[in-house]
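User: My instructor asked us to take a sequence, write out its structure as tokens, and then describe one feature of it. I'm not sure where to start. Here is the sequence I was given:
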Amino acid sequence: NLIGDLVRDAAKAEAPRQTGELRKSIKVRRYPAERMVRVMAGNKKAWYPYLVILGTIQRFTKGRGPRRFKKYSTGSTKPNNFFQRAFDRTLPEIKAIFGKTIKAELS
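Assistant: Let's start with the prediction itself. The structure tokens for your sequence are:
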């Protein structure tokens, strides 16, 4: 639980802030049966986290009607892997938590 919250808070701090919807969508899902947590982003308002993380390439679309021969660029976005930066930033704390847990279990 603590590790998921650490990574979630770091990911919210690292996430790009244009509308704020991506930051709001970052949440922790807990799976107690497997003793696992998953930090995830995305909902109906913020459906685009994969586009932010992986980036996009420039592509063109054709216009419609009288402008059908004109091409419009949809632009490109550089990859912004904020989840990886958040994990890397919290890794020393995660290792310390795991170390304390293992020592407590062994003693």
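For the description part of your assignment, you could build on this observation: The mean pLDDT is 89. Try explaining in your own words what that tells you about the chain.
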